[in-house]
Amino acid sequence: MIPLPWSYVNLWRCIGCGLCCINYDVVLKFDEWLRIVQRFGVGVTRAGLNKLYLGKKPDGSCIFLSRIDGKYVCTLQGMKPIACKLWPFRILNRPKYGKAREALFNYKRRRLYVYIDPSCPGIRWGKPSPIMVNHVIPEFIEIALGIRKKQVYSTGRLLYSLDVRRKTSGLFAHRKM
């Protein structure tokens, strides 16, 4: 699907549906690949012709996707790739997908073009809400620009309870292959 301008979106939040981790291949930057391989082994990744990817389970979903309490969650939170952190948004320096006026977002005097993949079910369409304008979009931009690591608005809300469980149950443990 062709991404649409952010200004068509009232609000976005991750609903834990897992579609992004099931339907898409995650391209890794070399440093991301290296960190993941050093921690979990090369078997959790795969190589393409000229790209590195997160591995897939036999059902086609990401190797780090788990289902907990009816929601899908990423078990790679501490080292989640930038491609995963940014999905379903695309932050660009030019209006690659058209509708430049609607995609334009002025962030600290910098003109950026922000688009969203319309296939994400976490989108609520309509006039952008103050939370969208003042928190969600700026957080995605800061992640894209490399000035923010921690996700608040750009990830699912289950993380706090899952982090507590991880510390007590070892649910998120992966072994080197």
Task: Summarize the entry for a quick read.
This protein has 177 residues and is α+β, with helices and mostly antiparallel strands. Helices cover 29% and strands 23% of the residues.
In percent, how helical is the residue content?
Answer: 25-40%
Number-wise, the strands total: 11
How are helices and strands ordered from N to C?
A: EEHEHEEEEHEHEEEHH
The count of helical stretches stands at 6
> Beta fraction of the residues?
15-25%
Could you give a short account of the major beta sheet? 4 strands, antiparallel
Number of domains: 1
Structural class: alpha+beta
Q: What does this molecule look like?
A:
The chain has one domain. The longest helix is centred in the C-terminal third of the chain and has 16 residues, at 130-145. The chain is α+β, with helices and mostly antiparallel strands. The chain contains six helices and eleven strands.
Give a quick set of tags describing it.
177 residues; alpha+beta; 4-stranded antiparallel beta sheet; 3-stranded antiparallel beta sheet; 6 helices; 11 strands
Write the layout of secondary structure elements.
Layout: E1 4-5, E2 9-12, H1 19-23, E3 27-28, H2 30-40, E4 45-47, E5 52-54, E6 65-68, E7 71-74, H3 82-86, E8 89-92, H4 100-103, E9 104-107, E10 110-116, E11 123-125, H5 130-145, H6 159-169
Antiparallel strand pairs: 1-10, 2-11, 3-5, 4-5, 6-7, 8-10, 9-10
